[in-house]
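STRUCTURE:
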């Protein structure tokens, strides 16, 4: 399922991240154009809003989602 967040996602809109364009393109292919349901950025955006998605969170950083959601849900 192609991701509906592409227009607002800073990861998707960034041409190069960490000077590793081939890795970025691979991640976009797997998550943004492939199965966006697995994307860590999308999960945080859906729970907290895309403004609260950390800039440096990558689609495959799923191990950070629980911590980010817990912290975000306890902010005022
Ligand atoms: S990085 Fe995630 S949230 Fe952003 S466009 Fe790709 S799949 Fe969607």
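SEQUENCE:
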């Amino acid at each position: 399922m192609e991701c509906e967040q592409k227009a607002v996602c800073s990861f998707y809109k960034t041409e190069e991240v960490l000077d590793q364009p081939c890795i970025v393109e691979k991640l976009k292919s797997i998550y943004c154009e492939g199965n966006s349901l697995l994307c860590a950025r999308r999960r945080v955006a859906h729970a907290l809003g895309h403004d609260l998605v950390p800039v440096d969170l990558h689609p495959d950083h799923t191990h950070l989602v629980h911590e980010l959601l817990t912290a975000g849900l306890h902010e005022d």
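REMARK: The longest helix spans residues 21-32.
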